[in-house]
Model the fold of this input.
Amino acid sequence: MTLPTTQLLYVTTFALATVGCLAGAWRAAERLRGDVRWGLVSLFCTSGLWAALTVAQLVATTESAKAALFTVGLVVGFATVGCWLYFVSAYSGRAFHRDPALRLVALVGFLVVTSVKLSNVAHHRYFSHTLEVDPFPHLVLMRHWPHWVVTAVAYTLVAAGFVLLVRMYARSGQDTGRVTLLAGAAGVPIVPDVVSVLRPDLLLGVTYEPVGVAVFAVGSLFVVESDFDRLRTPARTQVIDDLRDPVVVLDDRDRVQDHNPAAADLFAPAAERLAVGEPAPAALAETADGAMDETPVVLTVDGRPRHYVVRRSPVDLGPHRLGRVCVLTDVTRIESQRRDLRRQRQEMDNFAEAVAHELRNDLNIAAGYADILGDRLTADTTDATAMRAADAIGAAHGRIDDVVGDLATLAELAQSTFEVEPHALGSVVDDARAGLDHQDVRVVAGGDGTVVAEGRRLRELLSNLLAHAAARDAERVTVAPTHDGFVVRHDGRPIPHDRAASAFRYGTAVTEGIALANAGALARVHGWSLDLSTTATGETEIAAHGAETTVGSARGPVPAAESRAGAGSGSGSGSIEEATREAGQSSPRARSNIDSAASRRSE
Done:
């Protein structure tokens, strides 16, 4: 049969709306995921079904068939509102579409409206109609107040969905222009209906809402796709234009969306070249979002391997992950230095172990002979010089043994990789004081507080400071926390002003040993600094700066420890070779004492 031109025009319009909705549903199913996909697909499907029912109504030959198809179309059309709200809830990251109570309310409301529409054939209060044959057979609709109430409710719910969208865009700092255009598209469905009522000479009195809803659904897909496709723009704004490092932009499926020239040059010789729309190279797909893999990836550049650290940062819109920005940082030089450091560290460990083993073996032998010599001198002679020489030998052996122990501890604690946590300063002072080999030194904790540090290193640092104070004939030592560290103050002999600046360096340590140098090394390995000064009352003050601390209420004096043990030692970023040279200073002094004693004895 041949349709009149006007009828053919109307049928074609609604048929195109049906095809467009089906195409939109297919594209949404391909491009989107999760509840967002199901929400938009259902919106397209219901819109397309409504348009298809309108096509059937336009070509139906009887008034009753047209009225029945129109009524079913009204039911399907109202379902599009629920699909829209489901989509908006999912797209904005809300959970309204999964709330059982809201689902029940929505179902009950839909069934009530549906019952009113389907029963219109009996009460004719929702709409009434007549059959008009000019220019082709079609229904002329008269919509009554229930129809307009339901329409108002539907548009109110649509507006509520736009509120959710606007809030999501505001939180993400994105332009709301496209949402404004979409809101304008939401008003398209009702405009032709109003015009057909007010100016029937311009438009026939049929329903035009299916076409308007189809336009609205396509607009919704356009907004979603433009948000995802805009990944290149925010990624460039945020990262690419500000970096010279290779940068690659990936979508949420790890496909390349953009890259800068440096990245193209880096991957050009590789088997996995960068191509927009293609999967990303394996080197970019192995690191979690926001994390930097500590193990560099190795890429060949100009025929040579180079090491890169990959950091992936997410690009988000509200709750949606648009993609990732991968930044590759060349760490070849750092990796080479890291290998050298590991090698040097191993060499230092081996050196310290050899020093401790070899020196202590010889020291044990020498100490044994020194004990025999002392016993013979005690039994066989009253030569005071020889006795002093024997005592000097024993003292030198003891000092060398202490320094060897310091070297071994230094090599162990000089590692800069360790875990830190808050420690109560008073408790650490108690532990350090317990190992102090001077019972007559009174140690006072001047206040409560914590210091973020590695426990053993902090204890060794304080042990060295207490040992230094004891060696300077201190009678009282006070330890107290400060806002950026702690301070150790003692009343012993002050260090000369011209030697204060070098007191914490190996090779220039004060005569009492290397305790201050050890303390300085342990401070440096934490990233702290030590300052030495003399107070107005003549006390020596050693302050640690750069530590993370908390300062609490004051504490009373802490009684002196009764235990006796060897003074602690420390290590740090200072040179072990310097410590070795400092240790070597004991031998010339010991030999000088021995030679002097021997010469006096021969006289």
User: Anything to note?
Assistant: Confidence is low (pLDDT under 50) at residues 231-235, 288-292, 553-603. Residues 448 and 552 are 5 Å apart (CA to CA). The longest helix spans residues 332-380. The longest strand covers residues 304-317.
